[in-house]
Every structure is written in C-alpha cells, then in structure tokens.
Amino acid sequence: MTRTRLTLYDTTLRDGQQTQGVQFSTPEKHQIAAMLDQLGIDYIEGGWPGANPTDSEFFAAKPQTKATLTAFGMTKRAGRSAENDDVLAAVLNADTQAVCLVGKAHDFHVTTALGISLAENLENIGASIAHCVARGREAHFDAEHFFDGYKANPDYALQALHAAHDAGARWIVLCDTNGGTLPSEIRAITESVIKSGIPGDHLGIHCHDDTGQAVACSLAAVEAGARQIQGTLNGLGERCGNASLTTLIPTLLLKPAYAERFEIGVTPEALTQLLRISRKLDDILNRVPLRTLPFVGASAFAHKAGLHASAILKDPTTYEHIDPATVGNARVVPMSNQAGQSNLRMRLADMGVAVARDDPRLGAILEDVKAREDQGYAYDSAQASFELLARRALGQVPDYFEVKRYRVTVERRKNKYNEMITLSEAVVVVKIGDEKKLSVSESLDAEGHDRGPVNALAKALAKDLGPYQDAIDDMKLVDFKVRITQGGTEAVTRVIIDSEDGQGRRWSTVGVSPNIVDASFEALLDAVTWKFLRDGVEPCRT
Amino acid sequence: MTRTRLTLYDTTLRDGQQTQGVQFSTPEKHQIAAMLDQLGIDYIEGGWPGANPTDSEFFAAKPQTKATLTAFGMTKRAGRSAENDDVLAAVLNADTQAVCLVGKAHDFHVTTALGISLAENLENIGASIAHCVARGREAHFDAEHFFDGYKANPDYALQALHAAHDAGARWIVLCDTNGGTLPSEIRAITESVIKSGIPGDHLGIHCHDDTGQAVACSLAAVEAGARQIQGTLNGLGERCGNASLTTLIPTLLLKPAYAERFEIGVTPEALTQLLRISRKLDDILNRVPLRTLPFVGASAFAHKAGLHASAILKDPTTYEHIDPATVGNARVVPMSNQAGQSNLRMRLADMGVAVARDDPRLGAILEDVKAREDQGYAYDSAQASFELLARRALGQVPDYFEVKRYRVTVERRKNKYNEMITLSEAVVVVKIGDEKKLSVSESLDAEGHDRGPVNALAKALAKDLGPYQDAIDDMKLVDFKVRITQGGTEAVTRVIIDSEDGQGRRWSTVGVSPNIVDASFEALLDAVTWKFLRDGVEPCRT
To answer: Which contiguous run of DSSP H or E holds residue B482?
Structure first.
C-alpha cells in the first residue's frame, strides 16, 4: 500500500517565541534550526524579518538547511500596493525560498481589528500572495482565526482561502488562532474546505492547546485530508502553547493507525534523538524539563504502581504503549531491582569501570543516586559528578587535597569617583599533604568589571594548588547554569558547571545547596577532582 | 431541549497518587476531597483501603461528602470465594456507599500477568461484583487494559464487561491503562460496546495522556455514548498523567458543542473557583504551577504578540476563546521585545496610569524596555519591575531611601564540633531622609540552617527601614528564580523574585548583573519600592 506523505512545518522560532518568558538570541535560533534540520522537519519558520533585530540577524546569516527555510510576515496593508509595502518588502528581503503570510479569514476581525472592508481584505491577500509568487517564492497563506471565522461566516472564510489559493499559494494553513476549537469541529470544517475546491495536499493545520487538544485537533485535520502539520518542539508557543511536534512525530511514526497510511521526513534513527532534542531545547531555555511530557518526559515510562512494576518485569509490553528506546527514552522502575543494576553496570563500563554483576556496591550506588536526586542533584546533566560518585563508592578516588575553609565577600559601595561599584573577593585555604595554602582572588576581569563571587572563588581555588598546578592550568570554566529546584523560601540551588581543558575535553559537574556559593564550590571541586583523575595525577602523601 | 447528565468521577486520591514524587498524607487527602466536593464532583475515589496505612486512615475517618465516596480495590483472586478474599474484605470494610473493583479485560494479561485461565478470570469478575451488590454497595467495574484487550480479542474483552454488567455493576469503566489508544479508536470501540448491549449510561471512560490526547479521548467516548468521565485535578497520575478534570470541566461547561447537549454537577459559580483549586493542589504538592495549563495556567490568557495585544485592546474576544473570569483566571498582557505602543498603553491603563496615545514618553519607555531586555531583563515575568520602570519615566516614583552600601560574606569553615558549616552574613547601610541606618543579619533559618547570601541580604534590608517598617513587615519572599542569560564566563545573571504581602498580593521583580548577589539586591529593592508605592507610603523628606 502506498503511504501518503505528510509535511511537517516547525514554528518554534516564531510562534514558539511567543511563549511567556521566551526570547531566543540569534545563536540560539541557529542552534535550534540545526536540531530541527537533523530531525527531518520539512519547513523551518525562522521568524519575522524586520519585526525585531534577532529575527533579521537570523536570516541575514543565511543558515544552510536541508529543510525549506521560511520567513513569516503579513499580507500587505490596505491603501498601498504589494510593491510599496515596506513590511512585506522586509520579509522578501530575507531571501528565503518560502514565505508565509498571515491574513484575516474572520469577517469580525477584518472590520474590528483591521477596520477595513471585507473586499479590501480579500484584495490584500490575493495581491500579497501573487507578489511573492511573481518574485519566485513558494508562498504560504496563514489563515488567521479561520475556524472561528468559518463558524461566524463560512462563505467569507472560504473566500479568504480561495483568494490565496487562486493567487498561487502552495499551502493554505488553517489556523485555530485562539485555540478553542474542538477536534470534531476541526474535522468537519476541514472536510468542508476540501469540498469547496482546495485539495488536501495544499492544506495545513495550525492548532493551539487551549483546551488541551492541540495534538488531537491536528490529527483530526489530517484524518479529514489536510497534509501539512504545523507545530513546535515541546509544544512551546503563545498562551498554552502550540501543537507539540515532539508528541505528534512519534504518534505518526509509531501508531499503526497513522504509520500504515502516512509517511513523514523523520526516520526511525532520527526519532531516537527526540528526547535529546527536547532536553536540549529546555537547556537553551534553562527550563526544568516537564517530567510528564508524552514520549520524552522523564516520567513517561516510569512505573510506580507495584502491580505494574512486577508485570513489567515479566513483559514490558504489559504496561508500555511503545518501546521507550524508539524515542531515546528509557524505562524507570524502582531502583533496587535487577534492571536498574544492569543499567548502572553498563553506564560504568562506558566510563571504563568494570564491576561484577553481583557486586553489592552496585545496590549501594543506586541508593545513593536516588537519595541525592531527591535532594536536587541531576546526574544526567553532570556525568563527571556521577562518575566521581560511583568511583568514590568503589574506592577509586584518592584524597588529592582538603579544603579547610573559604570566605567570599561581595561588597557594593562608592568608589573614589563617587560611582557605585561592586567587588567580590574570595579566600580559599587548602591542605595538600602537610602543607597549608592560602589563596586570595578578586573577581575583576581584564576590563576591570566585577564577574561575581563564583568567579572569584574559582580563581582563588585554581591559584595555588602546589604540585597539582600543572594539571589545573589548562582548565577553564566554560558554562555555569543555576536552577532553583524547589519554590518558596526553602529553595535549594542546583549549580551545573561545564569545564574544558587544553586537550578539548569538556565535562559537567553538579553541586546542590540552599546557598548558591556553596553549591557552586561543590561543583568546582568535582570539576578539579575529575580532571586530576582523568590526567592520572599522583596524589601527594603526607 | 433536555440535556443529558454526565457523571464526573475523580481519582486524584488514587491514580493521581501514582504520579512520580507524589505521596499524600491523610490530612492532605481530606483537604483534597473537600475541594472536590465543593467543586461538584459526583464520585470521589479515596484510595485503596488495606493497600497502605494512609488510604485506610482516610476511610476510617468517615469523611462526609455530598459526592459518593468510593473505595478502590481489585476483584477476588482465583481459587477462593469472594467471601474469603481478604483483599476484597478490606475494601468492603471501608464502608463506603460505592466500591470500584479493577479486573482484567485483556486475554494476554489474564494468562501472562495473572497466570490463570480466561474462564477463571470471568468468574472472578462476576462473583466479586455480585458479592459487593449483595452487601448493598453500588459496584463499579474498572476494566483494565480494555482497549488493548478489545484490539487483541474483542469477544473476550466484551465478555469481561458483560460478566460485571450481568452481576449488577452500576458502572463499567473502559480503561485505556497504557494510554496509547487514539481518540478515533476510543470512539469506535465505545460504540461497539454499546452495540453489544451495555447502555451508555452505564459506561465510564478512564484515559491517560501518553499521546497527549487524554482529554480528546475522554470526549470521544462521551460522543460515542459513555456517560461517566474519570479524571484527576491538574491531570495528575501515573506516567504522563490521567485525563485532567481541570481541563474537561470548563470544556464541558463553556463549549457550546457540549454545553448544549450535556449537563454536569459543577455550577458556573463553582467553576470560578477552578483556578484556586488547581493552585491549592500545587501548594499541597509544593509544586510550581504549570504556566501553560489550559484554562487555569498563568499563561493561558497571556498575550505576548504585539498584533494580538492591539486587537485585545479593541475587543477581548478577538484573541480569547473564553472569558478568563469564568474559571477564575485573568488576562495578562506582558511586556516583551514584540510589544508595541498599544500594548504598552493598555498595560499602563491596567495599572491606573492614563497616557495619551501621542505622549512621547511612550516611545522612551519602549526604548528603555528594549535596551534593558537586551541586557537580560525580562519584563514579561516581572510586571512589578515593569510598572516601576514606566512610573519612573513618568515621574511617579518618589525617592523613599538610598542604599549607601552593602556587604555580604559567605564563609565555609569548621564549627566547634569539627563539622564543616556554611554561614552568610549581610550588612546594609541605607539613608532615609537625613538618617543613616546600619542593619546586619545572618542567613540562618529557625532550624539553624544556612539559607544563603540573598536570604541574609533580604533580612538585613527589611530589618530597619525606620518610618517604612510597617509597610514592609507583612512582606515575604515566596519564590526566587535564577537564570544565566549568556553562556561562558561573561555570563550575566538574571534574578526574578516573587513577593507576597498580608493582603494576599503577589508581585514579581527582576534584577540583572554579572554578580548574582547584586542582581538579587536589585530585584529586592524593586520589590520593596513597589510595595511602598501600592500602599501609598509617604516618602520622608530631608
């Protein structure tokens, strides 16, 4: 049976940026576009050129993607020609293969929000699409408020679509802009659109999650005949978010009802990277990944109920709707059982640590990991700290040095020019063998700017480690992430530090404490210890 | 037109407790049951009496509810009579009006997980239900794995249902235990069940969110004829969670497609308490409320796009699928790079500041917001800091006091018991009118634990603000979020602080600096200043 090709259109970089608190930088946009391209998305909507500097810079850098890069904009305004509309010109100047123009399909919006006549609006749509097509672009029409518009005035809503279609639009995207339309309504209205003469392979669907049904609404449109699905990674987007491609992609690939009828550009190999891509986006946003996310959430294959866990041991299909490995996820079962221990042995083997199958220390390490993760540690993001935890339990980490004490001071006051300045200073006292070493550093960078207390502490620690100095000299702190893992005044701070050395190695360590300075210091100490261990540094004996 | 009554069945206290990291105490269970009762839920499933002490204690206290309290358990085991099954006896001993017994409807589970014959399983179901009915209880049969079972062996799956129905079960609940069934499959299979002779007003639906479609699946079953919906508050539950009643209830009440056909026990008045109930549950669980939750999320009615904001100003229905007040929520028009002048004027109007459309200060404020957002400020998450920025530009913020200097010390060292401890201390010097005030605080909480440098600084600042002390005494820091907005050593720290006062007001402020202590102090100062402004505190004159 030949399967029908569905087209995936990602709008993480445009509609996803409408999420409260989300503002991508240009390099972050490039990073996300590269991930989407790797995944096998057909269209990547990069933003609205001309609307803000970040979006303009993104396109100006001419990102190279297998996917069709698409610039978003709006149809020309009334009272001027498409040629003389500066907003439309900025979109075309981004020089992308495809452009997507939003226009009104709801009569109420035309008269209330735009304040123009219904005929003028149709003229704006047709002339704008025709202008893009004449410039050699693949044109998409984003029919804003289409479903609400259809319910209010079906004839006019369809006229708006046909104005774009007749002008040569490759895709007409049916948008449920306010997110309140139900799957059954989406299905029936999409069928009417096809009946009106626009073929399904020219129709896209764009849904929001305001009734928690964005995925179901998108699939209802596909069942009715639409062949392009718009969505975002992790369901990012305005208000409750857009339809999540992170949920739709595995559903389309793994559920027989869809997999037997349709194909998409995402391969099974690319699908195994889905969890990694989802987490990477959260990393960029510095968000705590949502545990309950379908397919890729940390809890998506966690079996807590006792009855479930014991059945899972007999046969995983008893309580799993798909194999977690297909999306790069893993089953989570109570730590103490055999499956947990064999996972641990595999992870240790990856680090070059061989442990026998029946070694009782395996159970102890698992207990320790679980207890520390309850306190806020995150060993998935801090592999070097995990390696140290395991090696400590196995007696493989020497005592290189002991920190006797430290003190950090942050002071804000006026300088001699009567300007307010902030200065941080750190003192670290370590004992190496029999020798005690005091080091002090301040936090000013080369330009004389304060870089904060953790910077001062890192510099003081690295300043004089005596016989170990050679091993530490090529080491630098390259990233620093802070997360509050509990709300309220009882908040605990988790710090993850990424370090790099002259050999190009990069490793991550974690520290947790109610005190951010203390959490940072713990992560710094792990970073230094891991480096010594990997370099085979000989510990000083007393 | 007469509307059909739908029955709501809540399982927050049983399936909701299967969420990773969730374990309710008995008083918390009572608190949640009271909230559900207030909301107008028909059945409250309290737990599994006999399975754990918390659930047994919950029922032993005989909670009084308008809703029908239901005890959960399982059908009797093979090889013994219903009368002699101790697990079943414990469920009946809870002495509730209704009991819900789970049993297998999937042949594979009967043979693989239970290891009994298909006939024995049918006998267990029938005898257990009949036993409960004979004891005067309203019996529900929870048909585990029903949909997967129906796909594998429709005859046997139906036989399991009919065994319960024939034995007198009031409700037969169709469970999609593994959460992988699609809405179209749920609809078709539910129709087949009704065709087999079990009337829809005896059928319930129990869905999970493993493909992000639990709400849509539940509604598909209702459209097919099922009349009881099971779910949980905030969609709590095993793996990705159960169908969310918090989403289903407003959908059923506010969407004409359902409201015109069906009625439920939740009144419009009770619906206005939905947001409060949702947040209260997060409070009990000590979780940060999910901003993107449909209807009740903090972002559910947040309008970030400039185009949307200008239309909302003309008519809120342009970009809102329901009136946020119906569920106790409110519109949010956050500030961001994409905000236009109309967005800004609307925000100012909400704060009670009328500015003329052509006031040149509007442009200046927007420029300032943009410049600061480039530095790392985030005004859509920190509305109080935004208000201060705007009011300062309009000359509406008095100089309440001046911070002359501060100093914070974090020290880690051994105490007199030779244990490593961390201690933070802060000194703040402010000038109020002509008077200079020095305050010092340390960071220890009531249990003697260090809460870090920002805590010490907040306490020192609040310790003595002379004539302003009354205004600050009922204020507390309730949340603290840190984000590094650029990678590498040039990282800038953004701190967002949420504060609350005795009048229940909650507001967010932001600070940005390479130095985390400095960023926190800036946010603290804004928090205090906003409070003074809102309370109409009179500034001291020199």
So the answer is: strand B476-484
Identify whether residues B181 and B42 lie together within a single domain. Answer: yes
Identify the domain boundary among A266, A299, A318.
Answer: A266
A212 contacts on B by Cβ (under 8 Å): 214-216, 235, 244, 247, 251, 294
Given a cut of 70, whether residue B469 has pLDDT beyond it is yes
Domain assignment present for residue B293? The answer is no
User: Would you say residue B251 lies in a domain?
Assistant: yes
Domains identified in chain B, total number: 3
Indicate the residue of A25, A210, A292 with minimum beta-carbon distance to B240.
A292
Ranges of chain A with pLDDT below 50: 335-337, 487-489
Predicted local confidence at residue A487, as pLDDT: 37
Residues B430 and B366 in one domain: no
C-alpha triplet B459, B461, B467: angle, nearest 5° = 120
Residue B357 token pair:
């459309």
Contact assessment for residue B125 and residue B97, using Cβ atoms and an 8 Å cutoff: no
Determine, for residues A215 and B213 on separate chains, whether the beta-carbon distance falls below 8 Å: yes
Q: Is the ipTM of this complex over 0.90?
A: no
Model pLDDT for residues A19-63, shown as the tens digit of each residue: 887 888 899 999 999 999 999 999 999 999 998 888 999 999 999
DSSP-based three-state secondary structure for B105: coil
pLDDT at A486: 55
Backbone angles phi, psi at A45, to 5 degrees: -85, 115
User: At a CB cut-off of 8 Å and minimum separation 6, what does B158 contact?
Assistant: B150, B192, B193, B196
A187 occurs within a structural domain: yes
Pair B91, B146 in one domain:
yes
- Tokens standing for B218? 């539940």
Q: Which residues pair with B44 in a beta bridge?
A: B10, B69
pLDDT surpasses 80 at B307: no
- Residues B403-413 have a mean pLDDT of 94
Task: Give the integer Cα–Cα distance in Å for B100 and A76.
Answer: 61
Q: What sign does the dihedral A366-A368-A374-A376 (CA atoms) show?
A: negative
* pLDDT at B271 > cutoff 50: yes
B93: closest CA of chain A, how far (Å): 22
Nearest-CA residue of chain B relative to A333?
Answer: B20
pLDDT digits over A204-220, tens only? 999 999 999 999 999 99
For B440-462, how does the pLDDT look when each residue is reduced to its tens digit (9 = 90+)?
Answer: 999 888 888 888 898 899 999 98
**Reported pTM:** 0.77
Which range of residues forms the domain containing residue A432?
A: 402-535
Q: In this structure, are B386 and B440 located in the same domain?
A: no
Element (H, E) at B510: strand B506-513
Count the helices and strands in chain A (H runs, E runs): 20, 16
- Which residue in B314, B322, B422 is closest to A515 by CB distance? B422
Q: Is residue B371 in a domain?
A: yes
Q: Are residues B161 and B215 in the same domain?
A: yes
